[in-house]
Design goal:
heterodimer; A: 159 residues; mainly alpha; 2 domains; 64% helix; elongated; B: 162 residues; Butyryl-CoA Dehydrogenase, subunit A, domain 3; 8 helices; 0% strand; globular
Chain lengths: 159, 162
């Protein structure tokens, strides 16, 4: 079945918007738009080539602006700061936990039934306690839900 | 291992981000360091919600850049503005470095939000959802910023776009 001319025109307009906003590489267009956009590109190869090449000419130009790399000194400073910062933060979180526990015990002794509800949201540490003790283990545990495993072999630097 | 790996992976990325927002390599390095040090500080009590670690780091870095721009250069990155359209030297065409300088200058005069959107999507290679989250805006708003930003860049660099 031949697509309705209106839907073809709408698809073309959308492809133009995508190239104008996200550049000439369809792999970097929003995932939700890609199937329809790629179908239009495949069905109109000559127009697609012109449109994408136009966007790529600006992409190439933008890449001429190279970013500086961090110095070795900056890398050393950041790495050296990690153990100190992690331990200080860990100590603070334990102090909060202990303070919360003490407050809860005092409240219970005083017979205040509502005390746990009052104390809990304020004094509980911001996240589940981290039981690892060295900075690397803490970072590994903390990042696991959000980041791929922090193996050096998996490093991919894009700048 | 994690500290070394994260530093190797994120410090260049954050330095590049800050350099392109600020137009100053030294300040960019300071800000990238500060962002990672804040990450170390957060590690034992980490709670990113739904945000990815990389998005969180970008948000921290962008906020530090905005603070720096407000404090140090209320009028924006003026050093770079001076580079706008200098044209080629009389005895030679534009070389790669000159082109880079022209792009930097054109980026510097974009409105801040457009510059941030272009830097996140084009240079940091973020997807639209992640970039919108880093900027705290909708994906529609992000697309609008990108479209206007790239149009302005194309106009500013029209003599170089082939």
């Amino acid at each position: 079945m031949t697509p309705h001319p209106d839907s073809v025109a709408a698809a073309e307009a959308r492809v133009r918007q995508l190239a104008e906003s996200f550049g000439g590489d369809p792999a970097r267009w929003p995932e939700a738009d890609r199937p329809d956009a790629e179908a239009w590109l495949a069905a109109h190869p000559a127009e697609a080539r012109r449109l994408l090449e136009d966007a790529r000419s600006l992409d190439r130009l933008l890449y001429a602006w190279e970013a500086p790399r961090p110095t070795a000194a900056a890398t050393t400073r950041v790495q050296a700061a990690a153990p100190v910062q992690v331990r200080q933060s860990q100590r603070r979180s334990w102090v909060l936990t202990l303070t919360g526990g003490a407050a809860l015990a005092a409240a219970c002794l005083a017979g205040i039934v509502a005390a746990p509800r009052l104390v809990d949201p304020v004094l509980r540490p911001a996240a589940a306690p981290v039981y690892a003790s060295d900075p690397d283990s803490i970072l590994d545990e903390a990042l696991t839900p959000w980041e791929a495993p922090v193996a050096e072999s998996a490093m991919g630097v894009r700048s | 291992m994690a500290v070394r790996a994260l530093t190797a992976r994120k410090l260049p990325r954050l330095t590049a981000l800050a350099a392109r927002i600020l137009g100053d390599a030294t300040e960019a390095e300071d800000i990238a360091q500060e962002s990672l040090i804040r990450a170390w500080r957060q590690a034992p009590v980490w709670r990113f919600g739904e945000a990815r670690f990389d998005t969180w780091l970008h948000r921290v870095t962008l906020n530090l850049c905005r603070d720096r721009l407000r404090r140090v250069r209320p009028g924006g990155p003026q050093d770079l503005e001076a580079l706008v359209d200098p044209g080629p030297a009389p005895d030679r065409g534009l070389e790669a470095r000159d082109v880079g300088d022209r792009v930097a200058a054109a980026m510097a005069i974009l409105p801040a939000r457009q510059r941030e959107a272009v830097v996140l999507c084009h240079y940091q290679e973020m997807g639209n959802i992640q970039a919108a989250a880093a900027l705290g805006i909708s994906v529609e708003a992000l697309e609008s910023l990108l479209s206007r930003g790239r149009r302005a860049l194309r106009a500013a660099l029209s003599d170089l776009v082939t």
